[in-house]
């Protein structure tokens, strides 16, 4: 069974109660029309499909076929629906709305548009933007199915340096309890990267999943022209398991080779086990380690190296 924190379950249930109440989905008739919610959903499918069958609608809406049949009979009795035999399947009937049925759907559609518009009018412009964004995320989450996450790598955009520092700090504070000393360190590294950037020796990549930052990595030159540093690898918790860390490290290594570096080094801490595993699989070798007190904790710093 999947790990389902009770707080997450309670929050989603609370949202469902609020949402159904705000939209009046529990009212006997939807949006002041003569249709119930289930009838409105069936009417929508009839209006947006070409000659569907009752079985098609039942599968799409995940509704009981007996309930579908009763609703379709009521529609036919009201003159909203007409049927004809399916020439390719003698036991099935093809469904379509009559002109009266299409007029009824058009009226219902206008009522629904006005109801949602009124709901949006009750919130501020900022809250509306957040509401629409959250609705889009929920649709992607539920409609995405089991498709694997699509990971893309890109270069830096304005604002990315600040986001990398902020996201790494928040992530490691949550997972390891690190204090803002880490944020200060990352900010100094990123400021130096910007100030000393050389396109012939440096590079950076941001991993995106569905347009959302999922991780980062930086290739930074050092004092020795033959040696580069891999810095600031991180992967967002939602992206773990999608191969983001491995893709970032492999991309960084390949680019370092193209630039002519002979060795790639990095510094990390032993507590970052997932990152260390990625480094080991990529061929990095642990050179040395030493205890230190940083970010509010006693840690073991590690230096790793990869011959290119």
Automatic annotation (TrEMBL):
Organism for this UniProt entry: Sphingomonas lycopersici
Record-annotated N-acetyltransferase domain positions: 151-308
Keywords, comma-separated and alphabetical: Transferase
Alphabetical list of SUPFAM superfamilies matching this protein: Acyl-CoA N-acyltransferases (Nat), Winged helix' DNA-binding domain
Keyword field contains Transferase: yes
Protein name: Helix-turn-helix domain-containing GNAT family N-acetyltransferase
InterPro entries: Acyl_CoA_acyltransferase, ArsR-like_HTH, GNAT_dom, HTH_MarR-typ, NAT_camello-type, WH-like_DNA-bd_sf, WH_DNA-bd_sf
Domain of life according to the entry: Bacteria
Limits of the HTH marR-type domain: 1-140
GO molecular function, one term: DNA-binding transcription factor activity
